[in-house]
């Protein structure tokens, strides 16, 4: 098992490199193991894979049958993170929702830092957290800039070393509050100590997110910028990289694909009265036995 300092160190170095990182959601040790082993040869001698994994509050709550309303605290989720770390050496970015009360957030930062988490993302909403992609369909409120900056500073001050990154996630575009407000907030968050910015958008054409990247890069050419293309699914990784993003997070696809397959398998066995028809869609027993070291 890697020590916590060795685990944290690579992410900041990777974000300082001249390439964009691919980050995949992992909600269990087996999904993290699959993310770490995924490789694709795109040209002779040149393979790509995932540089880090994303611990999503949505998928962590969903797999427990709980609503995505910040019901799980970092304390609830840490045992699962430690299980992932037992089998996966990729850096982990932790989705901390709103961060909760500043006083609680400062304590949770120490816990996450000790566990070996590489970066923590908090969003600038307040009140009962609702999933961002619901947008203005539900009641969602943004924290004031001053209060959110104070929470960021509390988290930064709570760190015992320099390894854990603090990422501020801006929800202004999600809530249709415009590019100007989103930019003002993000610049303020950087001044308050954020090590990077995650900008979120639910516009499916992707134009909004690309324009934000263009404007942000004019203001802060070196600050890490992260996006989550759950809505603008047609935009390829290379397009987002050229736009100036330092990391692209595929934030819920491992859980969504797994549960779709399990649902269809459960119904298929009932429909066919046997598993023969489902076997081609299942990982072979031999592959399962070989997936986890020491099984054979």
Description:
The chain has helices at about 5-15, 30-35, 55-60, 75-85, 100-115, 145-160, 180-190, 205-220, 235-245, 255-270, 285-290; strands at about 20-25, 40-45, 45-50, 50-55, 90-95, 120-125, 125, 140, 165-170, 195-200, 225, 245-250. It is α/β, with parallel strands linked by helices and about 300 residues long. Strands 1-4-5-6-9-10-11-12 form an eight-stranded parallel barrel, surrounded by seven helices. The chain has a two-stranded antiparallel ribbon with strand order 2-3. Strands 7-8 form a two-stranded antiparallel ribbon. Helices cover about 45% and strands about 15% of the residues. The protein folds into two domains: about 5-250, Phosphoenolpyruvate-binding domains (TIM Barrel, Alpha-Beta Barrel); about 255-295, no CATH class. Helix 2 (about 30-35) packs across helix 4 and helix 5 (about 100-115) packs parallel to helix 6. The chain contains eleven helices and twelve strands.
Q: Layout of helices and strands, plus pairs?
A:
Elements: H1 4-15, E1 21-25, H2 29-37, E2 39-43, E3 46-49, E4 52-55, H3 57-62, H4 74-87, E5 92-95, H5 102-115, E6 119-123, E7 125-126, E8 141-142, H6 145-158, E9 165-170, H7 179-191, E10 196-199, H8 207-219, E11 225-227, H9 237-243, E12 247-250, H10 253-272, H11 285-291
Parallel strand pairs: 1-4, 1-12, 4-5, 5-6, 6-9, 9-10, 10-11, 11-12
Antiparallel strand pairs: 2-3, 7-8
Helix pairs in contact: 2-4, 4-5, 5-6, 7-8
């Amino acid at each position: 098992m890697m020590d916590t300092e060795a685990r944290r160190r690579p992410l900041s170095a990777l974000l300082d490199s001249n390439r964009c990182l691919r980050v995949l959601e992992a909600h269990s040790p087996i999904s993290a193991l699959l993310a770490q082993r995924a490789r694709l040869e795109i040209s002779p001698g040149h393979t790509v894979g995932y540089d880090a994994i994303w611990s999503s509050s949505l998928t962590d709550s969903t797999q427990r049958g709980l609503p995505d309303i910040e019901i799980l605290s970092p304390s609830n989720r840490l045992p699962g993170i430690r299980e992932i770390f037992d089998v996966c050496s990729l850096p982990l970015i932790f989705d901390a929702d709103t961060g909760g009360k500043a006083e609680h957030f400062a304590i949770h930062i120490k816990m996450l830092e000790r566990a070996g988490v590489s970066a923590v993302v908090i969003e600038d909403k307040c009140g009962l957290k609702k999933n961002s992609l619901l947008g203005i369909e539900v009641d969602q409120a943004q924290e004031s800039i001053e209060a959110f900056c104070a929470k960021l500073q509390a988290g930064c001050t709570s760190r015992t070393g320099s390894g854990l990154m603090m990422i501020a996630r801006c929800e202004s575009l999600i809530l249709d509050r415009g590019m100007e407000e989103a930019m003002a907030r993000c610049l303020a968050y950087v001044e308050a100590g954020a090590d990077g910015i995650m900008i979120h958008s639910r516009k499916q054409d992707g134009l909004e997110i690309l324009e934000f990247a263009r404007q942000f890069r004019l203001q802060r050419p070196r600050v890490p910028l992260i996006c989550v293309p759950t809505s603008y699914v047609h935009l390829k990784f290379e397009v987002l990289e050229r736009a100036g993003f330092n990391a692209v997070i595929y934030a819920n696809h491992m859980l969504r694909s797994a549960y779709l397959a399990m649902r269809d398998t459960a119904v298929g066995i009932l429909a066919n009265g046997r598993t023969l028809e489902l076997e081609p869609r299942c990982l072979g027993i031999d592959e399962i036995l070989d997936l986890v070291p020491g099984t054979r």
